[in-house]
UniProtKB/TrEMBL annotation:
Record's protein name: carbonic anhydrase
Single Gene Ontology MF annotation: zinc ion binding
Lineage of the organism: Bacteria, Bacillati, Bacillota, Bacilli, Bacillales
Record text on cofactor binding: Binds 1 zinc ion per subunit.
Binding site for Zn(2+): C38, D40, H96, C99
InterPro entries listed in its UniProt record: Carbonic_anhydrase, Carbonic_anhydrase_sf
Enzyme class: lyase
Domain of life: Bacteria
Length: 198
């Protein structure tokens, strides 16, 4: 039996037994937050429990390293949709210690891609076409700096309302301990005070 077959078999039983009923909620986040975090498997259940987030509380966006690589890419669009269309009014960027993006070098991925059948000609063609393949596949040096960069990219986005608080945290994937990197309330309050003076 393939992995897909086992997923589909389980799904039939899941629906037939109405196990979905305990997950029913609305599309609007009850705690009015959107969380950007890493796709690391260790965080799948740990992060919600460590943050007291249950099904229906938050919009959860996952990618490698909780990185926002482009201010007008799909990650930022998802954050803006969560704010404007789904009622979120706070953003939390949560990186983690021991992230696979820490120190990631493009040469490792490019070598493995060639071993899996991607030709060197394809890679060269992408670079010739103006794609910064090496930049696209480069990680970061410190998780805290990456969280700060992602927070700043969100906060400085021209479409982000000034009253949205953007926080930065780092979680330990072994214990679930959260370390605060950026308290978004401080920046939001300062911005609101400055707007009142104008």
């Amino acid at each position: 039996m393939t992995l897909l077959d086992s997923v589909l078999d389980h799904n039939k039983q899941f629906v037939m037994e109405k196990q979905y009923e305990r997950f029913q909620t609305t599309k609007f986040p009850d705690k009015k937050i959107v969380i950007l975090t890493c796709m690391d498997t260790r965080l799948l259940e740990l992060l919600p429990f460590a943050m007291n987030i249950k099904n229906g509380d938050a919009k959860l966006i996952r990618n490698a390293g909780a990185v926002i690589s482009h201010p007008f890419g799909s990650i930022m669009r998802s954050i803006l949709v969560a704010i404007y269309e789904l009622g979120a009014n706070e953003v939390m960027v949560v990186g983690h210690h021991g992230c696979g993006m820490t120190g990631l070098q493009p040469s490792s991925i490019l070598q493995k891609s060639q071993e899996r059948g991607v030709s060197l000609e394809t890679i060269d063609m992408l670079e010739f076409s103006g794609v910064d393949v090496k930049g696209f596949l480069t990680g970061f040096e410190k998780v805290e700096e990456n969280v700060e960069n992602s927070v700043q990219m969100i906060k400085r986005h021209p479409l982000l309302p000034k009253d949205v608080s953007v926080h930065g945290l780092v979680i330990c994937p072994e214990t679930g301990q959260l370390d605060l990197i950026i308290n978004g309330y401080e920046d939001t309050n300062m911005s609101m005070i400055q707007n009142q003076k104008v």
